[in-house]
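In the design runs reported in the main text, the only information available to the sequence generator was the tokenized backbone. The following block is the verbatim input for one such run; it is reproduced so that readers can re-run the procedure and compare outputs position by position.
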């Protein structure tokens, strides 16, 4: 095949992937949600996050101020992309807990993390799961909140705040989507109502997600 044909093929694949961007990012499951992914959805998101999005995850999670001995919850762990980085970071006696509403994603994350023995798993709704109060030093919410119905968010955020130790932190990164009612001020308001105080906010741009926000919150001390 001539060089010209090869280049043309690559360009066509890029155009195809780009035209599918919204479908691929916004969900593949029967109900168009991330929680019930199709098999192609599982395959695509694993490939997407590990290969195409590797630097997007690495750069964010590697700069989190974790010493390695903390207890951290990855809320909405999905296909385990950030969990792999976190499990490695928590190698100095720390523990990672991966929580997802979807049994399929938890199964995928377990497969991805099978070589780590510092990981626990929770499947289901954090509002009803009986996780002990003040049991985590930090919680990460990565590209999850915008996927949750706006009416469910207050109870979910309160349940998350409940399990963070006083003085502990919540790290959140979300795409800003007016149509999903997710903005930096709506996140701040939800967190404040749950007793979490904003410590930092950064606005960035991502090729896949457009405008994103990275925020850090701290749970009020006793
Ligand atoms: C867009 S994915 C992000 C996955 C992962 N955090 C990442 O950045 O690669 C959103 C994830 O949140 C999960 N999710 C949605 N609603 C949830 C809820 N109420 N509780 C826990 N997980 C939830 C979905 O099942 C899905 O795995």
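Verbatim output:
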């Amino acid at each position: 095949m001539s060089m010209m044909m090869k280049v043309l093929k690559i360009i066509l694949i890029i155009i195809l992937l780009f035209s599918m961007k919204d479908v691929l990012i916004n969900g593949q499951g029967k109900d168009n949600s991330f929680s019930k992914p199709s098999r192609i959805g599982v395959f695509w998101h694993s490939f997407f996050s590990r290969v195409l999005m590797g630097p997007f995850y690495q750069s964010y999670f590697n700069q989190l101020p974790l010493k390695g001995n903390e207890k951290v919850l990855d809320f909405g762990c999905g296909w385990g992309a950030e969990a792999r980085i976190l499990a490695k970071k928590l190698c100095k006696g720390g523990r990672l807990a991966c929580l997802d509403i979807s049994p399929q994603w938890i199964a995928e994350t377990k497969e991805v993390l099978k070589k780590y023995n510092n990981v626990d798993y929770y499947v289901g709704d954090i509002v009803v799961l009986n996780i002990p109060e003040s049991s985590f030093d930090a919680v990460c919410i990565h590209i999850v909140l915008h996927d949750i119905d706006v009416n469910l968010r207050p109870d979910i955020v309160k349940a998350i705040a409940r399990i963070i130790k006083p003085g502990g932190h919540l790290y959140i990164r979300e795409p800003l989507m007016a149509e999903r009612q997710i903005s930096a001020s709506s996140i701040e308001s939800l967190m404040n109502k749950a007793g979490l105080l904003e410590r930092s906010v950064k606005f960035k741009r991502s090729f896949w997600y457009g405008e994103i926000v990275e925020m850090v919150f701290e749970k009020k001390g006793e």
